[in-house]
Amino acid sequence: MRIKVNGEEREILSPLSLQEYLDSLGLSERRVVVEYNGEILSKEAWPNTTLKDGDRLEIVHFVGGG
């Protein structure tokens, strides 16, 4: 199954929830905003959103610093 993440095609071998996918990338949910097929999803929706072939994700990861 293929999805687009920040404009790049990625292959996922089995169906995953959005939460599982973000966990596999090691992203902290406190510092991430996700747009799923053109809509920003609340963090509460991530575990119940199953990624499907052709989905588009834009993942913005905030980095602190000074």
Automatic annotation (TrEMBL):
InterPro entries: Beta-grasp_dom_sf (IPR012675), Mopterin_synth/thiamin_S_b (IPR016155), Thi_S (IPR010035), ThiS/MoaD-like (IPR003749). It comes from the Bacteria. This is Sulfur carrier protein ThiS.
